[in-house]
């Protein structure tokens, strides 16, 4: 059986999926891989294009009819949330009604910005690597940055206005759900469980043989500095990537509850999982 799989070229995803997509572990299915930035994956999932796909949790909130969540392979943790950065040390209240760059309409970064406070309705959607240059050029008052950008923004003379992950953790006590791996519900529980198990073994292999994926990761990464790539993987690939566990599931349910209350995602009675 052949399944289509989409994930981003970011180091955390390529690290997790390297063994599975390069035949280093056995699986009862074949994969057709598509690399896209996270917002492109979000929009493809809206069209139910892929069998398996990485998406932002914000996007998943809109996709629960067609897709369910896997327990492995995602990005959820502490100290890894999106940052709001600018050229000037604005107060967040000063950004109300100003133009803010976000890395996608359906990204969790944008959802957290909207949950933080009302008034951030003027957003400009840019791919994540374009946000810092747009802030530097003054095209936007501020930007919400993710991925490698959180390590490099000081190099461009920008200042951090807010760590949305810290805000979330202080508000809720939960780790921040950034992105997860989804499967079409129509695949059926047996196959979905096999995929979940295979991704877990792929991650185990990556942790046991961390150097084997180096070339593959570097060939897709936006940031080529090895130290930054390593920081990226260490931050976004953690125990929640191996299994969401009760705390991870509670964090996702809390995010969805708050977003539903604000009318930012539709309500759903479906289980998160198959």
Description:
- It is a single chain.
- The protein has 274 residues and is of the alpha/beta class.
- The protein folds into two domains: 2-77 and 176-261, 3-Layer(aba) Sandwich (D-Maltodextrin-Binding Protein, domain 2), CATH 3.40.190.10; 83-172, Periplasmic binding protein-like II (D-Maltodextrin-Binding Protein, domain 2, 3-Layer(aba) Sandwich), CATH 3.40.190.
- The protein contains twelve helices and eleven strands.
- Strands 1, 2, 3, 4, 5 and 11 form a six-stranded mixed sheet that branches.
- β7, α4 (108-116) and β8 form a beta-alpha-beta unit.
- The model has no long low-confidence stretch (mean pLDDT 96).
The helix/strand series, from N terminus to C terminus, equals: EHEHEHEEEEHEHEHEHEHHHHH
Mean pLDDT: 96
CATH architecture of the largest domain: 3-Layer(aba) Sandwich
The number of distinct β-strands equals 11
CATH class of the largest domain: Alpha Beta
Task: Count structural domains.
Answer: 2
Q: Give helix % range.
A: 40-55%
Query: What is Rg?
Result: 18 Å
For this structure, the CATH topology of the largest domain is D-Maltodextrin-Binding Protein, domain 2
Number of helices: 12
Q: How much β-strand is present in the residues?
A: 15-25%
| CA-based shape | globular
Q: What is the topological layout?
A:
Elements lengths: L1 E6 L3 H11 L8 E6 L2 H9 L5 E5 H4 L6 E3 L5 E3 L5 E4 L13 E3 L5 H9 L6 E3 L2 H9 L5 E4 L3 H4 L6 E5 H9 L3 E9 L4 H20 L5 H7 L5 H11 L2 H4 L2 H17 L13
Parallel strand pairs: 1-2, 1-3, 7-8, 7-9
Antiparallel strand pairs: 3-11, 4-11, 5-11, 6-9, 6-10
Helix pairs in contact: 1-8, 1-9, 4-7
